[in-house]
Amino acid sequence: MSDGPLIVQSDKTLLLDVDHPLSTECRQAIAPFAELERSPEHIHTYRLTNLGLWNARAAGHDAEGVIDTLIKYSRYAVPNSLLLDVAETMSRYGRLRLEMNPIHGLVLVTTDSAVLEEVIRAKKIAPLLGARIDDETIAVHPSQRGQIKQSLLRLGWPAEDFAGYVDGQAHPIDLNQDGWKIRSYQELAAEGFWHGGSGVVVLPCGAGKTIVGAAAMSHAKATTLILVTNTVAARQWREELLRRTTLNEDEIGEYSGSKKEIRPVTIATYQVMTKKKNGVYAHLDLFDSYDWGLIIYDEVHLLPAPIFRFTADIQSKRRLGLTATLVREDGMEGEVFSLIGPKRFDVPWKEIEAQGYIAPAECIEVRVTLTESERLAYATAEQEEKYRKGATTKTKSKVVEQIAMHHQDDQVLVIGQYLDQLDELSELLKAPVIKGETPIAEREVLFNKFRSGEIKCLVVSKVANFSIDLPDATIAIQVSGAFGSRQEEAQRLGRILRPKSDGRGARFYSVVSRDTLDQDYAQNRQRFLAEQGYAYKIIDADDIFQGKF
Questions:
Q1: Residue ranges per domain, the chain?
Q2: What does pTM read for this prediction?
Q3: Secondary structure in 3-state letters for 399-410
Q4: Is residue 289 pLDDT above 60, yes or no?
Protein backbone atom coordinates (compact mmCIF):
# COMPACT_ATOMS: atom_id res chain seq x y z
CA MET A 1 0.00 0.00 0.00
CA SER A 2 1.40 3.37 -0.98
CA ASP A 3 0.27 6.93 -1.42
CA GLY A 4 -0.77 6.10 -4.98
CA PRO A 5 -3.14 8.00 -7.30
CA LEU A 6 -5.70 5.17 -7.55
CA ILE A 7 -8.55 4.12 -5.26
CA VAL A 8 -9.76 0.63 -6.19
CA GLN A 9 -13.29 -0.23 -5.04
CA SER A 10 -14.99 -3.58 -4.73
CA ASP A 11 -17.75 -2.60 -7.23
CA LYS A 12 -15.04 -2.58 -9.97
CA THR A 13 -14.74 1.21 -10.11
CA LEU A 14 -11.31 2.81 -10.08
CA LEU A 15 -10.98 6.43 -8.91
CA LEU A 16 -7.97 8.27 -10.33
CA ASP A 17 -6.71 11.41 -8.57
CA VAL A 18 -5.62 13.48 -11.61
CA ASP A 19 -3.65 15.97 -9.48
CA HIS A 20 -1.35 13.23 -8.19
CA PRO A 21 2.22 13.30 -9.65
CA LEU A 22 1.86 9.67 -10.83
CA SER A 23 -1.58 10.11 -12.41
CA THR A 24 -0.33 10.18 -16.03
CA GLU A 25 1.83 7.08 -15.50
CA CYS A 26 -1.10 5.33 -13.80
CA ARG A 27 -3.55 6.32 -16.57
CA GLN A 28 -1.27 4.73 -19.16
CA ALA A 29 -0.84 1.60 -17.07
CA ILE A 30 -4.60 0.99 -16.57
CA ALA A 31 -5.68 2.08 -20.09
CA PRO A 32 -5.33 -1.43 -21.67
CA PHE A 33 -7.95 -2.94 -19.33
CA ALA A 34 -10.05 -0.16 -17.70
CA GLU A 35 -12.72 2.00 -19.31
CA LEU A 36 -13.19 5.66 -18.46
CA GLU A 37 -16.73 6.47 -17.29
CA ARG A 38 -16.57 10.04 -15.94
CA SER A 39 -13.92 12.73 -16.07
CA PRO A 40 -14.74 15.81 -13.98
CA GLU A 41 -11.91 18.12 -12.88
CA HIS A 42 -10.13 16.21 -10.08
CA ILE A 43 -11.23 12.59 -9.85
CA HIS A 44 -11.72 10.43 -12.94
CA THR A 45 -13.81 7.26 -12.66
CA TYR A 46 -12.78 4.12 -14.54
CA ARG A 47 -14.57 0.78 -14.57
CA LEU A 48 -13.36 -2.78 -15.01
CA THR A 49 -15.63 -4.61 -17.46
CA ASN A 50 -15.51 -8.20 -18.66
CA LEU A 51 -14.97 -7.12 -22.27
CA GLY A 52 -12.18 -4.72 -21.30
CA LEU A 53 -10.39 -7.50 -19.38
CA TRP A 54 -10.82 -9.99 -22.25
CA ASN A 55 -9.51 -7.45 -24.77
CA ALA A 56 -6.49 -6.96 -22.54
CA ARG A 57 -6.02 -10.73 -22.33
CA ALA A 58 -6.18 -11.04 -26.11
CA ALA A 59 -3.62 -8.23 -26.47
CA GLY A 60 -1.15 -10.22 -24.34
CA HIS A 61 -1.83 -8.86 -20.81
CA ASP A 62 -2.37 -11.50 -18.11
CA ALA A 63 -4.30 -11.37 -14.85
CA GLU A 64 -1.08 -11.23 -12.84
CA GLY A 65 0.02 -8.07 -14.69
CA VAL A 66 -3.39 -6.40 -14.19
CA ILE A 67 -3.42 -7.26 -10.47
CA ASP A 68 0.17 -6.01 -10.03
CA THR A 69 -0.80 -2.69 -11.69
CA LEU A 70 -3.80 -2.23 -9.41
CA ILE A 71 -1.75 -2.99 -6.28
CA LYS A 72 1.17 -0.81 -7.41
CA TYR A 73 -0.88 2.38 -7.92
CA SER A 74 -3.57 1.86 -5.28
CA ARG A 75 -3.66 4.27 -2.33
CA TYR A 76 -5.39 1.73 -0.08
CA ALA A 77 -5.46 -2.05 0.13
CA VAL A 78 -7.15 -3.49 -2.97
CA PRO A 79 -10.28 -5.53 -2.04
CA ASN A 80 -9.43 -9.21 -2.24
CA SER A 81 -12.82 -10.03 -3.81
CA LEU A 82 -12.00 -7.75 -6.76
CA LEU A 83 -8.59 -9.35 -7.32
CA LEU A 84 -10.22 -12.78 -7.36
CA ASP A 85 -12.87 -11.50 -9.77
CA VAL A 86 -10.23 -10.11 -12.17
CA ALA A 87 -8.32 -13.41 -12.12
CA GLU A 88 -11.54 -15.43 -12.63
CA THR A 89 -12.83 -13.18 -15.46
CA MET A 90 -9.54 -13.21 -17.38
CA SER A 91 -9.19 -16.98 -16.98
CA ARG A 92 -12.50 -17.42 -18.82
CA TYR A 93 -10.89 -16.23 -22.06
CA GLY A 94 -9.47 -19.13 -23.98
CA ARG A 95 -10.90 -21.96 -21.90
CA LEU A 96 -12.89 -22.69 -25.03
CA ARG A 97 -11.06 -22.81 -28.36
CA LEU A 98 -12.20 -23.21 -31.95
CA GLU A 99 -9.81 -25.46 -33.87
CA MET A 100 -9.63 -27.27 -37.19
CA ASN A 101 -9.50 -31.04 -36.67
CA PRO A 102 -7.99 -33.07 -39.57
CA ILE A 103 -10.81 -35.66 -39.29
CA HIS A 104 -13.84 -33.82 -37.91
CA GLY A 105 -13.29 -30.35 -39.38
CA LEU A 106 -14.27 -27.36 -37.20
CA VAL A 107 -14.45 -28.30 -33.50
CA LEU A 108 -14.93 -26.62 -30.13
CA VAL A 109 -12.26 -27.78 -27.68
CA THR A 110 -12.00 -27.07 -23.95
CA THR A 111 -9.41 -27.36 -21.24
CA ASP A 112 -12.28 -27.66 -18.74
CA SER A 113 -14.94 -30.26 -19.58
CA ALA A 114 -17.43 -28.74 -17.07
CA VAL A 115 -17.44 -25.51 -19.11
CA LEU A 116 -18.20 -27.48 -22.28
CA GLU A 117 -21.04 -29.28 -20.52
CA GLU A 118 -22.44 -25.90 -19.45
CA VAL A 119 -22.34 -24.25 -22.88
CA ILE A 120 -23.71 -27.16 -24.93
CA ARG A 121 -26.84 -27.08 -22.78
CA ALA A 122 -27.47 -23.41 -23.61
CA LYS A 123 -30.49 -23.02 -25.92
CA LYS A 124 -28.73 -20.68 -28.35
CA ILE A 125 -25.60 -22.82 -28.58
CA ALA A 126 -27.08 -26.31 -29.11
CA PRO A 127 -28.32 -25.73 -32.75
CA LEU A 128 -24.82 -24.58 -33.78
CA LEU A 129 -23.15 -27.81 -32.68
CA GLY A 130 -22.67 -31.18 -34.36
CA ALA A 131 -21.68 -34.54 -32.88
CA ARG A 132 -19.87 -34.94 -29.56
CA ILE A 133 -16.37 -36.35 -30.24
CA ASP A 134 -15.06 -36.82 -26.68
CA ASP A 135 -15.31 -35.24 -23.22
CA GLU A 136 -13.39 -32.17 -24.34
CA THR A 137 -14.34 -31.83 -28.01
CA ILE A 138 -17.54 -31.28 -30.00
CA ALA A 139 -18.03 -30.63 -33.71
CA VAL A 140 -19.27 -27.21 -34.90
CA HIS A 141 -21.08 -26.56 -38.18
CA PRO A 142 -18.47 -24.66 -40.28
CA SER A 143 -21.04 -22.05 -41.34
CA GLN A 144 -21.63 -21.18 -37.65
CA ARG A 145 -18.07 -20.14 -36.77
CA GLY A 146 -19.03 -16.46 -36.29
CA GLN A 147 -22.40 -17.17 -34.69
CA ILE A 148 -20.95 -19.48 -32.04
CA LYS A 149 -18.30 -16.89 -31.06
CA GLN A 150 -21.05 -14.28 -30.63
CA SER A 151 -23.21 -16.63 -28.56
CA LEU A 152 -20.32 -17.81 -26.35
CA LEU A 153 -19.30 -14.21 -25.64
CA ARG A 154 -22.85 -13.42 -24.49
CA LEU A 155 -22.70 -16.47 -22.19
CA GLY A 156 -19.49 -15.14 -20.65
CA TRP A 157 -17.18 -17.76 -22.18
CA PRO A 158 -15.33 -16.00 -25.03
CA ALA A 159 -13.69 -18.53 -27.33
CA GLU A 160 -10.25 -18.13 -28.86
CA ASP A 161 -10.27 -18.84 -32.56
CA PHE A 162 -7.42 -21.09 -33.74
CA ALA A 163 -9.33 -22.59 -36.66
CA GLY A 164 -7.08 -20.84 -39.18
CA TYR A 165 -7.78 -18.85 -42.30
CA VAL A 166 -7.94 -19.42 -46.03
CA ASP A 167 -5.05 -17.78 -47.85
CA GLY A 168 -7.29 -16.31 -50.57
CA GLN A 169 -6.03 -15.65 -54.06
CA ALA A 170 -2.34 -14.79 -54.01
CA HIS A 171 -1.37 -11.33 -55.19
CA PRO A 172 2.08 -9.75 -54.76
CA ILE A 173 1.98 -6.68 -52.48
CA ASP A 174 5.02 -5.12 -50.81
CA LEU A 175 5.70 -1.84 -49.07
CA ASN A 176 7.59 0.62 -51.26
CA GLN A 177 9.68 2.54 -48.68
CA ASP A 178 11.14 5.03 -51.13
CA GLY A 179 11.63 8.39 -49.35
CA TRP A 180 9.85 7.28 -46.15
CA LYS A 181 10.17 4.59 -43.49
CA ILE A 182 7.48 2.68 -41.64
CA ARG A 183 7.34 3.70 -37.95
CA SER A 184 8.12 1.13 -35.29
CA TYR A 185 4.61 1.19 -33.75
CA GLN A 186 3.02 0.74 -37.23
CA GLU A 187 5.21 -2.31 -37.81
CA LEU A 188 4.37 -3.71 -34.36
CA ALA A 189 0.64 -3.13 -35.00
CA ALA A 190 0.74 -5.00 -38.34
CA GLU A 191 2.73 -7.87 -36.81
CA GLY A 192 0.43 -8.04 -33.75
CA PHE A 193 -2.54 -8.37 -36.08
CA TRP A 194 -0.86 -10.93 -38.34
CA HIS A 195 0.19 -13.21 -35.47
CA GLY A 196 -3.29 -12.98 -33.97
CA GLY A 197 -4.87 -13.80 -37.33
CA SER A 198 -7.60 -11.19 -37.09
CA GLY A 199 -8.57 -8.33 -34.80
CA VAL A 200 -8.52 -4.60 -34.24
CA VAL A 201 -5.68 -2.07 -34.23
CA VAL A 202 -6.40 1.15 -32.29
CA LEU A 203 -4.36 4.22 -33.29
CA PRO A 204 -5.12 7.94 -33.12
CA CYS A 205 -6.19 9.85 -36.23
CA GLY A 206 -3.08 11.04 -38.02
CA ALA A 207 -0.91 8.19 -36.75
CA GLY A 208 -0.97 6.35 -40.08
CA LYS A 209 -3.66 3.65 -39.82
CA THR A 210 -3.59 3.34 -43.64
CA ILE A 211 0.09 2.36 -43.47
CA VAL A 212 -0.76 -0.33 -40.89
CA GLY A 213 -3.36 -1.60 -43.40
CA ALA A 214 -0.74 -1.55 -46.18
CA ALA A 215 1.76 -3.41 -43.94
CA ALA A 216 -0.90 -6.05 -43.17
CA MET A 217 -1.49 -6.42 -46.93
CA SER A 218 2.23 -6.95 -47.48
CA HIS A 219 2.08 -9.78 -44.88
CA ALA A 220 -0.98 -11.36 -46.56
CA LYS A 221 0.20 -10.94 -50.20
CA ALA A 222 -3.33 -11.74 -51.30
CA THR A 223 -6.41 -10.11 -52.78
CA THR A 224 -7.80 -7.57 -50.33
CA LEU A 225 -11.22 -5.97 -49.78
CA ILE A 226 -11.07 -2.61 -47.96
CA LEU A 227 -14.29 -1.19 -46.50
CA VAL A 228 -14.35 2.56 -45.85
CA THR A 229 -16.78 5.22 -44.64
CA ASN A 230 -17.24 7.25 -47.84
CA THR A 231 -15.98 7.90 -51.38
CA VAL A 232 -13.49 10.59 -50.28
CA ALA A 233 -11.92 8.09 -47.88
CA ALA A 234 -11.84 5.48 -50.68
CA ARG A 235 -9.85 7.83 -52.90
CA GLN A 236 -7.46 8.70 -50.07
CA TRP A 237 -6.83 4.99 -49.46
CA ARG A 238 -6.19 4.51 -53.17
CA GLU A 239 -3.69 7.41 -53.31
CA GLU A 240 -1.92 6.23 -50.17
CA LEU A 241 -1.61 2.63 -51.44
CA LEU A 242 -0.19 3.84 -54.77
CA ARG A 243 2.33 5.95 -52.85
CA ARG A 244 3.31 3.41 -50.16
CA THR A 245 3.12 0.01 -51.89
CA THR A 246 4.16 -1.74 -55.10
CA LEU A 247 0.53 -1.75 -56.36
CA ASN A 248 -0.24 0.06 -59.62
CA GLU A 249 -3.46 1.82 -60.69
CA ASP A 250 -4.86 -1.17 -62.58
CA GLU A 251 -4.66 -3.33 -59.46
CA ILE A 252 -6.87 -1.10 -57.26
CA GLY A 253 -10.62 -0.88 -57.89
CA GLU A 254 -13.28 1.42 -56.41
CA TYR A 255 -16.69 -0.05 -55.58
CA SER A 256 -18.98 2.85 -54.73
CA GLY A 257 -22.18 4.55 -55.86
CA SER A 258 -20.48 5.81 -59.03
CA LYS A 259 -18.08 2.94 -59.87
CA LYS A 260 -18.32 -0.85 -59.64
CA GLU A 261 -14.75 -2.05 -60.20
CA ILE A 262 -13.61 -5.38 -58.75
CA ARG A 263 -9.81 -5.69 -58.82
CA PRO A 264 -7.21 -7.61 -56.75
CA VAL A 265 -7.45 -4.76 -54.20
CA THR A 266 -11.00 -3.39 -54.06
CA ILE A 267 -12.04 -0.40 -51.94
CA ALA A 268 -15.79 -0.34 -51.17
CA THR A 269 -17.88 2.07 -49.11
CA TYR A 270 -20.15 1.00 -46.26
CA GLN A 271 -23.00 2.95 -47.93
CA VAL A 272 -22.97 0.89 -51.12
CA MET A 273 -22.55 -2.39 -49.19
CA THR A 274 -25.63 -1.73 -47.08
CA LYS A 275 -27.80 -0.38 -49.90
CA LYS A 276 -31.08 -2.28 -50.31
CA LYS A 277 -32.81 -3.01 -53.60
CA ASN A 278 -36.30 -4.56 -53.40
CA GLY A 279 -35.67 -5.31 -49.71
CA VAL A 280 -32.42 -7.18 -50.43
CA TYR A 281 -28.82 -6.09 -49.82
CA ALA A 282 -27.83 -6.02 -53.47
CA HIS A 283 -24.06 -5.68 -53.06
CA LEU A 284 -23.24 -7.90 -50.10
CA ASP A 285 -22.29 -10.72 -52.46
CA LEU A 286 -19.10 -8.70 -53.06
CA PHE A 287 -17.81 -10.44 -49.95
CA ASP A 288 -18.11 -13.79 -51.73
CA SER A 289 -17.53 -12.77 -55.33
CA TYR A 290 -13.78 -12.91 -54.99
CA ASP A 291 -11.49 -15.17 -53.06
CA TRP A 292 -10.32 -12.45 -50.66
CA GLY A 293 -7.28 -13.18 -48.52
CA LEU A 294 -7.78 -10.15 -46.27
CA ILE A 295 -10.69 -7.84 -45.42
CA ILE A 296 -9.87 -4.44 -43.87
CA TYR A 297 -12.57 -2.49 -42.02
CA ASP A 298 -11.63 1.20 -41.79
CA GLU A 299 -13.22 3.12 -38.87
CA VAL A 300 -14.48 -0.19 -37.47
CA HIS A 301 -16.35 1.60 -34.64
CA LEU A 302 -18.81 2.79 -37.35
CA LEU A 303 -19.45 -0.64 -38.84
CA PRO A 304 -23.16 -0.88 -39.83
CA ALA A 305 -25.19 -3.81 -38.41
CA PRO A 306 -25.77 -5.57 -41.81
CA ILE A 307 -21.97 -5.81 -42.26
CA PHE A 308 -21.75 -7.59 -38.87
CA ARG A 309 -24.28 -10.15 -40.05
CA PHE A 310 -22.27 -10.82 -43.17
CA THR A 311 -18.95 -10.83 -41.34
CA ALA A 312 -20.29 -13.69 -39.22
CA ASP A 313 -20.36 -15.78 -42.41
CA ILE A 314 -16.77 -15.09 -43.49
CA GLN A 315 -14.81 -16.07 -40.39
CA SER A 316 -12.35 -18.10 -42.45
CA LYS A 317 -11.00 -14.86 -44.00
CA ARG A 318 -8.47 -12.68 -42.17
CA ARG A 319 -10.10 -9.50 -40.87
CA LEU A 320 -8.36 -6.29 -39.75
CA GLY A 321 -10.33 -3.50 -38.03
CA LEU A 322 -8.74 -0.03 -37.88
CA THR A 323 -10.03 2.68 -35.55
CA ALA A 324 -9.08 5.60 -33.33
CA THR A 325 -11.42 4.39 -30.59
CA LEU A 326 -13.16 1.12 -29.84
CA VAL A 327 -16.07 3.11 -28.40
CA ARG A 328 -19.37 2.39 -30.18
CA GLU A 329 -22.38 4.49 -29.34
CA ASP A 330 -24.72 1.53 -29.89
CA GLY A 331 -23.00 -0.67 -27.32
CA MET A 332 -22.02 -3.30 -29.93
CA GLU A 333 -18.36 -3.52 -28.87
CA GLY A 334 -19.00 -7.22 -28.18
CA GLU A 335 -19.85 -7.81 -31.87
CA VAL A 336 -16.58 -6.16 -32.92
CA PHE A 337 -14.73 -8.39 -30.41
CA SER A 338 -16.35 -11.67 -31.51
CA LEU A 339 -16.71 -11.08 -35.29
CA ILE A 340 -13.81 -8.82 -36.34
CA GLY A 341 -11.60 -9.97 -33.49
CA PRO A 342 -10.14 -8.71 -30.20
CA LYS A 343 -7.87 -5.70 -29.80
CA ARG A 344 -4.41 -6.66 -31.09
CA PHE A 345 -2.60 -3.36 -30.66
CA ASP A 346 -3.26 -0.12 -28.83
CA VAL A 347 -0.99 2.74 -27.91
CA PRO A 348 -1.91 5.83 -25.84
CA TRP A 349 -2.29 8.99 -27.92
CA LYS A 350 0.02 10.94 -25.65
CA GLU A 351 2.78 8.35 -26.14
CA ILE A 352 2.69 8.85 -29.92
CA GLU A 353 2.55 12.63 -29.38
CA ALA A 354 5.67 12.43 -27.17
CA GLN A 355 7.46 10.62 -30.02
CA GLY A 356 6.57 13.52 -32.33
CA TYR A 357 4.35 11.49 -34.67
CA ILE A 358 1.19 13.48 -33.95
CA ALA A 359 0.90 17.18 -33.17
CA PRO A 360 0.55 18.22 -29.50
CA ALA A 361 -2.97 19.52 -28.93
CA GLU A 362 -4.60 21.84 -26.43
CA CYS A 363 -8.33 21.32 -25.80
CA ILE A 364 -10.38 24.34 -24.74
CA GLU A 365 -14.06 24.37 -23.82
CA VAL A 366 -15.58 27.83 -24.30
CA ARG A 367 -18.79 28.27 -22.29
CA VAL A 368 -21.37 30.64 -23.69
CA THR A 369 -24.23 32.12 -21.63
CA LEU A 370 -27.62 32.25 -23.39
CA THR A 371 -29.44 35.58 -23.66
CA GLU A 372 -32.70 35.96 -21.73
CA SER A 373 -34.80 35.33 -24.86
CA GLU A 374 -32.69 32.26 -25.76
CA ARG A 375 -33.05 30.88 -22.23
CA LEU A 376 -36.81 31.27 -22.42
CA ALA A 377 -36.92 29.62 -25.87
CA TYR A 378 -34.78 26.76 -24.52
CA ALA A 379 -36.91 26.34 -21.37
CA THR A 380 -40.15 26.11 -23.35
CA ALA A 381 -38.83 23.89 -26.17
CA GLU A 382 -40.00 20.29 -26.58
CA GLN A 383 -37.58 17.76 -25.11
CA GLU A 384 -36.41 16.50 -28.54
CA GLU A 385 -35.68 20.09 -29.63
CA LYS A 386 -33.81 21.17 -26.50
CA TYR A 387 -30.34 20.11 -27.62
CA ARG A 388 -30.67 21.81 -30.98
CA LYS A 389 -31.87 25.03 -29.29
CA GLY A 390 -28.90 25.03 -26.92
CA ALA A 391 -26.34 24.03 -29.55
CA THR A 392 -27.33 26.57 -32.24
CA THR A 393 -27.62 29.73 -30.15
CA LYS A 394 -26.70 32.95 -32.01
CA THR A 395 -24.22 33.89 -29.27
CA LYS A 396 -22.01 31.01 -30.45
CA SER A 397 -21.61 32.60 -33.89
CA LYS A 398 -20.02 35.73 -32.39
CA VAL A 399 -17.62 33.60 -30.33
CA VAL A 400 -16.63 31.52 -33.38
CA GLU A 401 -16.06 34.70 -35.40
CA GLN A 402 -13.80 36.06 -32.64
CA ILE A 403 -11.75 32.82 -32.41
CA ALA A 404 -11.42 32.63 -36.21
CA MET A 405 -10.22 36.28 -36.34
CA HIS A 406 -7.65 35.56 -33.61
CA HIS A 407 -6.32 32.63 -35.67
CA GLN A 408 -6.65 34.26 -39.10
CA ASP A 409 -3.09 33.24 -40.04
CA ASP A 410 -3.79 29.57 -39.22
CA GLN A 411 -5.71 26.86 -41.07
CA VAL A 412 -9.10 26.83 -39.28
CA LEU A 413 -11.78 24.12 -39.43
CA VAL A 414 -15.27 24.95 -38.11
CA ILE A 415 -17.18 21.71 -37.48
CA GLY A 416 -20.87 21.31 -36.64
CA GLN A 417 -23.96 19.14 -36.87
CA TYR A 418 -26.79 21.48 -38.00
CA LEU A 419 -26.76 22.68 -41.60
CA ASP A 420 -28.59 25.99 -41.03
CA GLN A 421 -26.02 26.85 -38.34
CA LEU A 422 -23.16 25.97 -40.71
CA ASP A 423 -24.65 28.01 -43.57
CA GLU A 424 -24.92 31.00 -41.23
CA LEU A 425 -21.29 30.57 -40.07
CA SER A 426 -20.12 30.17 -43.66
CA GLU A 427 -21.68 33.52 -44.51
CA LEU A 428 -20.37 35.21 -41.36
CA LEU A 429 -16.79 33.94 -41.84
CA LYS A 430 -16.87 34.26 -45.64
CA ALA A 431 -15.67 30.68 -45.79
CA PRO A 432 -16.87 27.83 -48.05
CA VAL A 433 -19.03 25.11 -46.48
CA ILE A 434 -18.83 21.35 -47.12
CA LYS A 435 -21.87 19.23 -46.25
CA GLY A 436 -23.59 16.03 -47.38
CA GLU A 437 -25.09 17.56 -50.51
CA THR A 438 -21.73 18.99 -51.69
CA PRO A 439 -20.65 16.93 -54.75
CA ILE A 440 -17.59 14.73 -54.23
CA ALA A 441 -15.60 16.56 -56.93
CA GLU A 442 -16.31 19.95 -55.29
CA ARG A 443 -15.34 18.59 -51.86
CA GLU A 444 -12.01 17.39 -53.17
CA VAL A 445 -11.30 20.77 -54.81
CA LEU A 446 -12.08 22.62 -51.55
CA PHE A 447 -10.05 20.19 -49.41
CA ASN A 448 -7.07 20.56 -51.79
CA LYS A 449 -7.33 24.38 -51.66
CA PHE A 450 -7.42 24.16 -47.86
CA ARG A 451 -4.38 21.84 -47.82
CA SER A 452 -2.42 24.22 -50.03
CA GLY A 453 -3.32 27.26 -47.88
CA GLU A 454 -5.34 28.96 -50.62
CA ILE A 455 -8.36 28.72 -48.30
CA LYS A 456 -7.65 29.59 -44.65
CA CYS A 457 -11.01 28.68 -43.14
CA LEU A 458 -13.39 25.84 -43.98
CA VAL A 459 -16.84 25.12 -42.49
CA VAL A 460 -17.65 21.39 -42.47
CA SER A 461 -20.53 19.18 -41.42
CA LYS A 462 -20.13 15.66 -40.04
CA VAL A 463 -18.92 14.52 -43.51
CA ALA A 464 -15.48 15.63 -42.30
CA ASN A 465 -15.63 13.45 -39.18
CA PHE A 466 -14.02 10.53 -40.95
CA SER A 467 -10.95 9.73 -42.94
CA ILE A 468 -10.15 13.22 -44.18
CA ASP A 469 -6.47 14.00 -44.42
CA LEU A 470 -5.86 17.69 -43.65
CA PRO A 471 -2.24 17.77 -42.48
CA ASP A 472 -1.89 21.48 -41.87
CA ALA A 473 -5.18 22.17 -40.10
CA THR A 474 -4.07 23.63 -36.78
CA ILE A 475 -7.32 24.98 -35.31
CA ALA A 476 -10.68 23.19 -35.00
CA ILE A 477 -13.76 24.96 -33.64
CA GLN A 478 -16.62 22.61 -32.75
CA VAL A 479 -20.03 24.28 -32.53
CA SER A 480 -22.40 21.30 -32.31
CA GLY A 481 -22.26 17.54 -32.57
CA ALA A 482 -24.08 14.22 -32.56
CA PHE A 483 -25.30 14.47 -28.98
CA GLY A 484 -22.83 12.94 -26.56
CA SER A 485 -20.74 10.96 -29.05
CA ARG A 486 -17.25 10.15 -27.71
CA GLN A 487 -16.03 8.65 -30.97
CA GLU A 488 -17.07 11.79 -32.90
CA GLU A 489 -15.07 13.93 -30.47
CA ALA A 490 -12.04 11.71 -31.05
CA GLN A 491 -12.49 11.90 -34.82
CA ARG A 492 -12.81 15.68 -34.78
CA LEU A 493 -9.73 16.22 -32.67
CA GLY A 494 -7.99 13.82 -35.02
CA ARG A 495 -8.59 16.18 -37.94
CA ILE A 496 -5.90 18.51 -36.52
CA LEU A 497 -3.45 16.02 -35.02
CA ARG A 498 -1.40 15.28 -38.11
CA PRO A 499 2.13 16.65 -37.57
CA LYS A 500 2.65 20.19 -38.88
CA SER A 501 5.43 21.04 -41.29
CA ASP A 502 6.75 23.67 -38.84
CA GLY A 503 6.27 21.54 -35.73
CA ARG A 504 3.46 23.67 -34.30
CA GLY A 505 0.82 22.36 -31.92
CA ALA A 506 -2.93 22.31 -32.52
CA ARG A 507 -5.91 23.81 -30.70
CA PHE A 508 -9.33 22.23 -30.39
CA TYR A 509 -12.08 24.64 -29.29
CA SER A 510 -15.44 23.27 -28.26
CA VAL A 511 -18.05 26.06 -27.96
CA VAL A 512 -20.70 24.96 -25.45
CA SER A 513 -23.91 26.61 -24.19
CA ARG A 514 -23.92 26.86 -20.38
CA ASP A 515 -26.73 25.18 -18.33
CA THR A 516 -28.14 23.25 -21.29
CA LEU A 517 -28.05 19.72 -22.67
CA ASP A 518 -25.19 20.97 -24.83
CA GLN A 519 -23.03 21.21 -21.68
CA ASP A 520 -24.16 17.78 -20.42
CA TYR A 521 -23.36 16.14 -23.75
CA ALA A 522 -20.00 17.91 -23.93
CA GLN A 523 -18.94 16.18 -20.71
CA ASN A 524 -19.77 12.79 -22.18
CA ARG A 525 -18.05 13.61 -25.46
CA GLN A 526 -14.83 14.43 -23.66
CA ARG A 527 -14.56 11.12 -21.82
CA PHE A 528 -12.56 9.22 -24.39
CA LEU A 529 -10.07 12.04 -24.91
CA ALA A 530 -9.67 12.44 -21.15
CA GLU A 531 -8.75 8.74 -21.06
CA GLN A 532 -6.04 9.49 -23.64
CA GLY A 533 -4.60 12.19 -21.40
CA TYR A 534 -6.15 15.32 -22.94
CA ALA A 535 -7.37 17.85 -20.39
CA TYR A 536 -9.99 20.43 -21.37
CA LYS A 537 -9.30 23.95 -20.16
CA ILE A 538 -12.66 25.65 -19.45
CA ILE A 539 -12.90 29.37 -20.24
CA ASP A 540 -15.78 31.83 -20.46
CA ALA A 541 -16.89 33.41 -23.73
CA ASP A 542 -16.12 36.83 -22.19
CA ASP A 543 -12.43 35.82 -22.06
CA ILE A 544 -12.56 35.30 -25.82
CA PHE A 545 -14.02 38.75 -26.42
CA GLN A 546 -11.31 40.24 -24.17
CA GLY A 547 -8.60 38.43 -26.11
CA LYS A 548 -7.57 36.17 -23.18
CA PHE A 549 -6.75 33.07 -25.22
A1: 6-92, 96-162, 184-347, 356-545
A2: 0.84
A3: HHHHHHHHCCCC
A4: yes
